[in-house]
From TrEMBL:
<dbReference type="Pfam" id="PF01266">
    <property type="entry name" value="DAO"/>
</dbReference>
<keyword id="KW-0274">FAD</keyword>
<keyword id="KW-0285">Flavoprotein</keyword>
<dbReference type="GO" id="GO:0004368">
    <property type="term" value="F:glycerol-3-phosphate dehydrogenase (quinone) activity"/>
</dbReference>
<dbReference type="InterPro" id="IPR006076">
    <property type="entry name" value="FAD-dep_OxRdtase"/>
</dbReference>
<dbReference type="InterPro" id="IPR000447">
    <property type="entry name" value="G3P_DH_FAD-dep"/>
</dbReference>
<dbReference type="GO" id="GO:0006072">
    <property type="term" value="P:glycerol-3-phosphate metabolic process"/>
</dbReference>
<feature type="domain" description="FAD dependent oxidoreductase">
    <location>
        <begin position="4"/>
        <end position="142"/>
    </location>
</feature>
<protein>
    <recommendedName>
        <fullName>glycerol-3-phosphate dehydrogenase</fullName>
        <ecNumber>1.1.5.3</ecNumber>
    </recommendedName>
</protein>
<dbReference type="GO" id="GO:0005739">
    <property type="term" value="C:mitochondrion"/>
</dbReference>
<keyword id="KW-0560">Oxidoreductase</keyword>
Amino acid sequence: MADPDTTPICQPSAGVHIVLPGYYSPSSTGLLDPSTSDGRVIFFLPWQRMTVAGTTDAPVSLTFHPSPNDVDIEFILREIRNYLSSDVTVRRGDVMSAWSGLRPLVRDPNKKDTKSLARNHVIEVSKSGLVTIAGGKWTTYRHMAEETVDKVIEVANLQPIRKCVTAGLLLEGAHNWDPLLHIRLVQDYGIDED
């Protein structure tokens, strides 16, 4: 660490998701409400013939084994009840599974809750030239890497032999991918479409 007195840049936040039977959402339509009763986001989406619903957002201590708690599960159930027919009663017993993950949110010393913290990444350069990247999302990791390398090139006054090619590289396993692959698997191997 370039400066041991620096305040930690990240605040871990726990997010819980639950899985419900598929009949809680249409097979091709989901719902996202960015303004729940307490200002968080709630969604429920069709997934693997089930319905995935979430999410919560609460500051937590860093742990290698995050787990959902009953308070968060009940919050999700309470919020999604607002979107279901009054004839439908979603119960705790309908929850087929639940999980929790940690988000590395960028800390704002002026904010107490995690819902207002940045979901994007931040790149900082210390007085000594140490380049730090914090925050971000797994859906933007390649863009984050490209921006970080570009910042290192700038700070270290490097002369790259070519521009970054990350955006054009296929992900591992994507070579020879065909959008009709699922049809070939069904026809050639008799695999069930589901």
